[in-house]
Every structure is written in structure tokens, then in C-alpha cells.
Write a structure and sequence with these properties.
Blueprint lengths: L1 H18 L3 E12 L1 E12 L5 E10 L3 E11 L4 E11 L11 E7 L11 E10 L5 E14 L5 E12 L7 E12 L2
Parallel strand pairs: 6-10
Antiparallel strand pairs: 1-4, 1-8, 2-3, 2-7, 3-6, 4-5, 7-10, 8-9
């Protein structure tokens, strides 16, 4: 009986060590649109009492497209865990946004994008705004996510989506295509 209990204790301790492994998650998202401008935004996501979403933060825009690469690294020790997030955004036509200028952006999520669970958090999102005089735009979203555990084989998932975005009721409103949480709550 003592050997069975000892064997169970050893198996349990090995399971706990295995579940506390380090890992790296990399994602790359490319968004291109015709008849629209593509934006990459970072900031605090808010929702008012009427249910409207806004982002208070910074943006980068491009007529040609936006590519965002995010890397989340988690390191787990016995007593603590450390998560580090790094994001790089590149615009196709060489334009650059200013990180020091904060603005408020009115947002409308496209079908299938849930902003509710990110309210009150720092997020990075990509959105499109239709060109003046346009009623809709074709948008292409390509995403690749790779999960790389420290002591196991990596796995990848790719997706490619083509979406027709209809014009919003309010001119200049941003239609959100993707959203990713960043580190921490809004300050």
C-alpha cells in the first residue's frame, strides 16, 4: 500500500511540473482592403451605457494594408509566473503613426468579433474605415498562430477570411476586424 501511495505522489508531482512548462505563442495577422483604409490601434477599450464601444489610444493607418506580429512568452517557475507580450505593426505603404498622440475612436465590431469581454482592458485591434463615397469594401484577413511549448512539438493554425464590410451608419466609424488583449487593465 505504501508503494502505491508513493507512486501516486511521484506521478502527481511530475504532472504538476509538466503543466508548469514555459511556452511561446506567436501570431501574425495581415489585413488588406480595397475601397477602405486599414488601421492598427492600441489602447483602452471602453463601452458606454448605450452599448457603444470606443478606444482611447493611438493608431497607425495604411491604404495598402497592415501586418501585426505578436509574441507572448510565458515562463513558469515554482513560485512565480512571468508573461511578456511584444507586438510589432508594419504598414504596407510605409506610413507611420505617432505613438504620443492619444485619440478616441468610435468602434463597431464586425460579425463574429466580440468586444464585450475586453472592455476595461488594454487591447490591440485592427479596423477599417470606408473611403468617402463608398458603400462597402472587400477585406482580406490572413492569420497564423504558432504555439511552441518548451518541451514539446510546436503546432500552427492558419486562417484566411474574405469579408465584405458594409458602410456604418456614422461616417468615420471604425469597423473592427480583429482584437487581441494586451498586458493589463486600463489605467
Amino acid at each position: 500500500m505504501r508503494r502505491i501511495v508513493t507512486g501516486c505522489a511521484v506521478a502527481l508531482s511530475m504532472t504538476l511540473v509538466a503543466s508548469a512548462q514555459d511556452s511561446t505563442i506567436k501570431s501574425k495577422t495581415e489585413i488588406k482592403a480595397d475601397d477602405a483604409t486599414v488601421y492598427s490601434m492600441t489602447g483602452c477599450l471602453k463601452q458606454d451605457v448605450a452599448g457603444n464601444f470606443t478606444l482611447y489610444g493611438t493608431s497607425v493607418k495604411s491604404r495598402e494594408g497592415v501586418t501585426s506580429e505578436t509574441k507572448v512568452r510565458s515562463e513558469n517557475d515554482r513560485d512565480e509566473s512571468k508573461v511578456t507580450t511584444t507586438t510589432r505593426t508594419k504598414v504596407e505603404d510605409g506610413r507611420v503613426g505617432t505613438a504620443g498622440t492619444l485619440s478616441t475612436f468610435m468602434l463597431t465590431p464586425r460579425e463574429g468579433v466580440a468586444l464585450n469581454k475586453y472592455v476595461g482592458q488594454q487591447v490591440q485591434l485592427t479596423a477599417v474605415v470606408l473611403d468617402p463615397g463608398e458603400k462597402d469594401a472587400e477585406v482580406k484577413v490572413e492569420e497564423k498562430v504558432t504555439v511552441d511549448p518548451a518541451h514539446a512539438d510546436a503546432s500552427s493554425k492558419r486562417s484566411k477570411t474574405e469579408i465584405e464590410v458594409e458602410g456604418p451608419a456614422v461616417h468615420g466609424q471604425f469597423t473592427v476586424m480583429t482584437v487581441k488583449p494586451m498586458d493589463g487593465a486600463c489605467r
